Amino acid sequence: MEAIKLRPEKEQKTMWFIGWAVPFVIGLVLLVVFLAFVPPAEAVWLVLLLCLFGWLVVMGLVLVWIPAFYKSLEYFIDSDSVKMKKGVFWKKNVAVPFTKITNLDVTEGPVQRMFGIGTISVQTAGAGGQQGAQPELKLLGIRDLEGVKDSIMERVRGYTISGSGEVREKAAERSDSEILGRMLEELTAIREVLENKRS
What we know:
The chain has a domain of 64 residues. The protein is 61% helix and 20% strand. It contains six helices and seven strands, in the order E-H-H-E-E-E-E-H-E-H-E-H-H. Strand 3 and strand 4 form a beta hairpin. The longest helix is centred in the N-terminal third of the chain and has 31 residues. The N and C termini lie far apart (60 Å). The mean pLDDT is 82.
């Protein structure tokens, strides 16, 4: 099968901006309310100005970081795994082999549904652990959720079926005497270890 390259939709970037704009607006409203009810004192004004400056610096950095992070996100579905590249300052590459995938979850929050996008979470037995734990990989801002999920599942099924056939063929190639000979060697080694522990 041909490799699939995906990028998040532009609406994902818009959602991140909205997510940061809400606390910014709430912070400004609280500042205005505070200024309206607190008597002006020199120390209070200095603290408020420092807080406002810090808040504006953080929001300015966020406005620069969101487009850079969005641009760094890439997803690949190739012949043997689902891969993700991301990172602005620290680059991170994640690959989840089809043999490790146990579940694919599709989620759409209310704002995501408004924009027509969602998230596909790739779960593995080792990383997922208990129910509700973090997925191994998340494909954010995907428009064709069911199509992408079906494409991954089709490859997982195909890989599992062909992989199990290869294992059966390799096992059939080995003769029974070879397998029994290896088992005897292992049992002999275990016996020697146990006898050495007794003495």
